[in-house]
Design a protein that fits this description.
It is a single chain. The protein is α/β, with parallel strands linked by helices. Helices cover 26% and strands 25% of the residues. It is built from 9 helices and 15 strands. The protein has an 8-stranded mixed beta sheet. Strands 6-5-8 form a 3-stranded antiparallel beta sheet, with no helix packed on it. α3 packs across α5, α6 packs parallel to α7 and α7 packs parallel to α8. The chain is globular, with a radius of gyration of 28 Å.
C-alpha cells in the first residue's frame, strides 16, 4: 500500500469523496501574487513604463555613498571614516525599490527605468573605491546606467626629485605612490625639475573602463559629472581666506585621455561618455578669471547664480551671505588629434613641511 505524502503547500484535509464535498480553502499567497503579476504584465508596455517611472524616478539625485574622514594621522592614511547614512537612505525613501526584487520580467523592466532615469551620486571624501565596488555589484544592470556624479578631491601630493623619483608627503589618501603617468608627456621646458606634483589615483581609469565595458546598448549616451566642490578649479590658482588651492591639469588631462581611449567619438553607433566638470566660486572671481579659465583649456557651457551662507559662530544674526556662481565645463582638447597632453610643471612651493634628508618619513 502506497503511503500518501502531503506537500507543505497542500491542505492535508481528508479526501472529499469519503467525507463529502469540502469547503474551498483560501488561495495561497503565491497564487495571489502570480495572478496579480499576470494582470500587471497584461498591461501595455507604455503603461507599465509610466508606472515604473512614477515609482522609481526621483526628483533629486540618489546618494549612493556619502562620508568623510574624521581625523588624520601624519604617518598613515586617514584613520576614521564617518558615513552619512541618513543622507544615503533618505534619497530613496519614497521610491518603490521592491519592484527591483519582483519577478524576472518586472525586475528587468523596472531596473532599466531606475538606472536610466536617475542620477547616482557619490559625495564627500573617498578613494573612488566605493564607486568601483558599486559598479561591479551592479552586474548586468550597469548597462542601463546613464548619469553618474562623483565628488573629485584635490589629488594627493608628492615631492619630485630632479631624477624623476617621487616621495610621498603627509595627509595622503592614495593607495600607493603613482609615478609619472605614461599618458602625460614630460614638459618640453620644465620650469622646475624638483618640487611638488599631483599624484593621480588610477582608480578613476578603472571607473571609466567599467562604464565602457557595460555599454552593450549601441548609441547609448552616458554622462559622468565630476564635482570639484567649492573654490577649486583645475589649472587655476584661487585664494580663499589666505589659503591657496592649487589643482593642476594632470587629472583632467588624464580623464580626457582615458575617455577617448575607452570610448570612440568617431563611431556614431557606439556608446559615448560625456565628462562634465562642476565648480563653484564667488561671482567676483568667476568674472575676473573667466578668460583665464578658458585659456587653460576649459569650455564653460552652463552657469547659474547661487549663494553660500557662512555661519558666524557666537554672533547670531550676523551670517555672511556670499553670492557665488555654479558652472559646468568640459575639457577642451586644444591639441592636434592624437597629440598627448603635457604633464604639469613641478611647483617649488608646498604647504607641507618636510625635512629634506628624509622625504616622506619625517615630516610635520
Amino acid at each position: 500500500m502506497a503511503i500518501r505524502r502531503f506537500s507543505p503547500l497542500q491542505d492535508p484535509s481528508p479526501s472529499p469523496r469519503r467525507f463529502g464535498r469540502r469547503s474551498p480553502s483560501p488561495p495561497s499567497p503565491f497564487t495571489c501574487a502570480n495572478r496579480a503579476n499576470s494582470k500587471f504584465l497584461s498591461l501595455p508596455a507604455e503603461i507599465r513604463l509610466n508606472i515604473y517611472s512614477f515609482c522609481l524616478i526621483s526628483s533629486s539625485s540618489i546618494v549612493v555613498w556619502s562620508g568623510n574622514f574624521e581625523t588624520y594621522r601624519s604617518d598613515k592614511r586617514p584613520s576614521r571614516l564617518q558615513m552619512h547614512r541618513e543622507e544615503m537612505t533618505s534619497s530613496t525613501r519614497n521610491l518603490a525599490l521592491g519592484l527591483l526584487r519582483c519577478s524576472t520580467t518586472v525586475a528587468a523592466e523596472s531596473a532599466r527605468v531606475f538606472y536610466r532615469g536617475n542620477l547616482f551620486r557619490f559625495t564627500g571624501y573617498h578613494e573612488y573605491y566605493p564607486v568601483i565596488t558599486w559598479l561591479d555589484k551592479l552586474g548586468k544592470n550597469r548597462k542601463y546606467l546613464e548619469n553618474l556624479a562623483i565628488s573629485v578631491r584635490r589629488p594627493d601630493r608628492a615631492w619630485q626629485m630632479p631624477d624623476g623619483s617621487r616621495h610621498q608627503l603627509a595627509y595622503t589618501m592614495s593607495r600607493g605612490l603613482s609615478l609619472h603617468h605614461p599618458h602625460l608627456a614630460p614638459p618640453e621646458e620644465p620650469s622646475y625639475l624638483e618640487g611638488e606634483v599631483d599624484v593621480v589615483d588610477p582608480a578613476l581609469e578603472t571607473i571609466i573602463s567599467l562604464l565602457s565595458k557595460s555599454s552593450s546598448d549601441g548609441g547609448r549616451k552616458m554622462t559622468l559629472y565630476l564635482d570639484t566642490g567649492y573654490y577649486i578649479i583645475p589649472g587655476i590658482e584661487l585664494i580663499i581666506e589666505e589659503y591657496t588651492s592649487l589643482f593642476s591639469m594632470d587629472l583632467p588631462n588624464l580623464v580626457e585621455t582615458w575617455r577617448t581611449s575607452y570610448f570612440f567619438d568617431d563611431d556614431p553607433g557606439a556608446s559615448s561618455l560625456d565628462v562634465v566638470w562642476k565648480a563653484e566660486v564667488s561671482r567676483e572671481d568667476f568674472y575676473d578669471k573667466r578668460a583665464l579659465i578658458q585659456n587653460v583649456g576649459w569650455k564653460i557651457f552652463e552657469k547659474q547664480e547661487a549663494e553660500r551662507i557662512y555661519n558666524c559662530f557666537g554672533r547670531p544674526g550676523e551670517d555672511e551671505v556670499i553670492p557665488t556662481m555654479r558652472f559646468l565645463m568640459r575639457r577642451d582638447h586644444l591639441l592636434a588629434p592624437g597629440a598627448p597632453f603635457m604633464a604639469a610643471n613641478a611647483s617649488p612651493f608646498t604647504d607641507v613641511y618636510i625635512k629634506p634628508e628624509k622625504f616622506g618619513n619625517d615630516y610635520y
